[in-house]
Amino acid sequence: GLNTFFSANAADTLRALSDAMAEYTQALQVFTDTDNSIIDRRKDMTDYGNGIVSRSTELYNIQLERRDTDSASANRLQLITTLLVLLLGVV
Fold first, then answer.
1. Spatial contact of 51 and 43, defined as CB atoms under 8 Å apart
2. Contacts with 6 (C-beta within 8 Å, 6 or more apart), sequence order
3. What is the DSSP letter of 35?
4. How remote is the C-alpha of 12 from its chain's centroid?
C-alpha cells in the first residue's frame, strides 16, 4: 500500500499525515458527539417549553373559571340584596 511506497522516501511526512488524519477523525467524533448532545438538549428544551405552555394554559383556564364563578356569585348576591330591599321596603 501507500506505507510501503512512501516509507522509504517520505516516512516522516506519511507519519505526520497519519497523525493529522487521526486527530481529524477524533475531532470529527467530538463534533458529532457534541452535535448529537445539542440535538438531545434542544429536544429536552422543546418538551420543557411545551410543558410550560400547557401549564400556563391550564392556569389561565382556572383563572377564567374562577372569574366566572366569582362573577356569578356577585350577581346572585346583588339580586338577593335587591330583592330583600324591595321586599322589606328599605331604601
1. no
2. 13, 14
3. H
4. 51
Q: What is the DSSP string of 39-83?
A: HHHHHHHHHHHHHHHHHHHHHHHHHHHHHHHHHHHHHHHHHHHHH
Sequential pLDDT tens for the chain (91 residues): 666 766 767 878 888 888 999 999 999 999 999 999 999 999 999 999 999 999 999 999 999 999 999 999 999 999 999 999 999 986 5
Q: Give the structural domain span for 19.
A: 1-91
> Amino acid identity of 67?
R
Torsion of CA 82, 85, 88, 91, to 10 degrees: -150
The helix/strand/coil state of 89 is coil
**Unique residue bearing C-alpha cell 467524533:** 29
